[in-house]
Amino acid sequence: MFELVFEFNPFDSIPMLLRLQNAFRSMTSMIREQERTANNLANANTIGYKQDRTFTATLEEYLDVEGGPQSDRRTEQWASLEQGAFEATGGPLDVAIENDGFFVLTDQEGGPERYTRAGRFTQDDQGMLRSPGGQLVEGLNGPIQIPRDAATIAIQADGTIRADDQPVGTLRLVRFENPMALTRVDGAAFTADGAEPLEVEQPSVRQGFIETSNVDPIREMTEMIAHFRQFESQQKVLSTHDQILGHVTRELGKF
Asked: What is the H or E stretch that residue 221 is in?
């Protein structure tokens, strides 16, 4: 009399689990890419907004139990500082930066400096120049104050502000050696996380203009569709392997 002996080797399931793990990693990556793309599209009309991009670094490569190539990766997100288009507004307190640089913003609560290219400024009751978010706009000698009763306000190319032909301050513009050191706070504003800002030696600004977002909606929509299709393909992989594992489990239950 023969006895049928079934031996289950748990390592036989490793290749399938590796495929599930790879599909999971890919789907997680696609979700993050979709979130980034959606945020870019939501800010396509935000003044001075810089689109988020991602960079993936391969840290270590190796072969899995099937001999397939694997790697440990780190994905970092950063803001592309490519200049957006200029839009003429004619507003005396609208300013666009040509080429490199950021406006410097501070608040009265002593928080960290913020840096932005969104130059749509306003005046408060005391004539202090402020960003739309309420932060003070810094000049070379501190926050800039413009008399409320000034008949004319002129902002020269070097950032010098004149009210009724009298200088009242000069916009402070800074730049950074490593743009990836910037962290987005909200919309078009960033903090530097300890990176030292460098003064722009030859600033160039244009009064009566604003810099629009550098987001290309068509490109972002194309990327969104590509990410969705990749997510769907990995979803099918998970579904197929789930069915296979379910079948194997049912067969094992017969022994």
From this structure: helix 217-252
69 vs 76: CA distance, rounded Å: 22
- Contact status, residue 166 vs residue 146, Cβ threshold 8 Å: no
Q: Under DSSP, is residue 71 helix (H, G, I), strand (E, B) or coil?
A: strand
CA distances, 174 to each of 2, 60, 76, 97 (Å): 85, 37, 24, 11
- Is pTM beyond 0.85? Reply is no
Tokens of 17: 């689990």
Q: How many CA atoms lie within 13 A of 54 on its CB side?
A: 17
Determine the Cα–Cα distance for residues 38 and 34; give it in Å rounded to an integer.
Answer: 6
**Nearest in space to 150 (alpha carbons), one of 171, 123, 118, 120:** 123
List of residues 6+ apart from 10 with CB closer than 8 A: none
Residues 142, 124: Cα–Cα separation, whole Å: 16
Question: Which tens digit of pLDDT belongs to each residue from 130-184?
Answer: 998 899 999 999 999 999 999 999 999 999 999 999 999 999 999 998 888 899 9
Question: Do the Cβ atoms of 44 and 215 come closer than 8 Å?
Answer: yes
Per-residue tokens: 193: 């996380």
